[in-house]
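Subject: sequence -> structure tokens, single chain

Hey, anyone have a minute? Need the predicted structure for the following. Not urgent.
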Amino acid sequence: MNGPTDIHAYLAEFEDIPGTRVYTAARARQGYHLNQFSMSLMKPENRERWKADERAYLDQWPLSEEQKQAVLARDYNRLLDLGGNIYFLSKIFSTDGIPFAEACSTMTDMTFPEYRQMMLDGGRSPEGNRSIKGGY
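Reply:
Had a minute. Here:
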């Protein structure tokens, strides 16, 4: 990098990785309250309030409507786009009784058994998954 103005170009390169959302400072700022909500589910009393009325519990947090809708839909890819951190979001699927790997499979075009087998076989191939603009 040649100077401080190049930081934006550098960070923009992170958006060029197919199927990957790099958790940048900008995403952290955007998702602060979303991640705090997720972490609140670590307390049993909060999980009970959440299970009793998800929307009412969400409305206690200063989330955008788009974030709330993504939580209610359990659209984890969208939540990542909206600043969610997968380790914080895991509190949601844990509360739902879904194992981490199974929840991750919902972020792919694979069934859980297909996703599990792919991971057992060594994970996603880097071929075709290195650059959106470069096509490789």
